[in-house]
Amino acid sequence: AVVSTQSTGKTKICMVNTPHNPIGKLFTEEEMEFIARTCEKHNALIISDEVYERCVFPGEEHVRIANIPGAWDRTITIGSAGKSFSMTGYKLGWAVGPAELINRVQAMHQTVVYSAPTITQDVVARCIEREVELKGKEEAYYTQLPKVMQEGSEILSEAARDAGLPFVKPYGGYFMMLDTTPLGLEFDTSKEMYDVQCSKYLMEHHKLATIPLSPFFNLNKDLSDKYVRLCFAKSTDTLKAGGDIIRELRK
Predict the structure, then answer these.
(1) Is 119 helix (H, G, I), strand (E, B) or coil?
(2) What are residue 16's phi and psi, to 5 degrees?
């Protein structure tokens, strides 16, 4: 509904993010078709952020909007080596799309960052070559990563349920949104958002590191007012320790 009401003849670009950060949503084929048709109606380009494409949980489906009939010619798809191979310090990725659009991406890239370090490109190239060789096999990283991410999310989800804290169930990505409303915390929000203060409080008083959501967007901040973001891209021991802290929050 938002895509339909906010899109006008002045709309130039529509940005899509799936799997979505921070809510872990996967857009369905029906939703992608609607977005594609809306962009076609207004002659708008599509930038599809799919950096968590390799973190889609087992049994779930990642739908690429570029594969929707008629969408390829107006879509630039963004991927990330850092997310695909769990080396987020490597700020390296790729853009895929029709030559006419990618040529413009290359021109912009050259004037902004010029080039990526050679060594990181070489490392990523070798990772990709290995995945091509092991495609579909159990030992492939792309086979193991979704399982690891799902297991991590389940550890935190179980802890949240035990504590009676609502959460948004993720279907991919690194993060889970936790509703802190039942904790009954109160802060002076005249100068700083609730979620920012809540994250500081949880760290200082409970040693639980969370991430506020309000810095990520400008409109409708009240929709996520009492939510904080948890990351499950951590070791099992760290996640279990975090889960124990979450269980203790309401005791």
Answers:
(1) helix
(2) -115, 140
Mean pLDDT computed over 232-243: 97
User: What's the pLDDT score for residue 6?
Assistant: 62
Strand arrangement, sheet containing 227-231: 167-168, 175-179, 227-231, 211-212
What is the per-residue pLDDT across 72-92, written as a single tens digit (0 to 9) for each?
999 999 999 999 999 999 889
What are the tokens at 40?
């076609």
Please tell me the pTM assigned to this model: 0.90
Residue 67: C-alpha distances to residues 11, 147, 203 (Å) = 22, 25, 43
Q: Which residues of 50-68 are buried (b: 16+ CB within 10 A; e: fewer)?
A: bbbbbbbbeeeebbbbbeb
The span from the CA of 251 to the CA of 249, in Å, is 6
pLDDT for 113: 87
The three-state DSSP-derived secondary structure of the chain is CHHHHHCCCCCCEEEEECCCCCCCCCCCHHHHHHHHHHHHHCCCEEEEECCCHHHECCCCCCCCHHHCCCCHHHEEEEEEHHHHCCCCCCCCEEEECCHHHHHHHHHHHHHHCCCCCHHHHHHHHHHHHHHHHHCCCCCCHHHHHHHHHHHHHHHHHHHHHHHCCCEECCCECCEEEEECHHHCCCCCCCCCCHHHHHHHHHHHHHCCCCEECHHHCCCCHHHHCCEEEEECCCCHHHHHHHHHHHHHCCC
Omega within 30 of 0 (cis) for the link into 22: yes
- CB contact at 8 A, 144 and 225: no
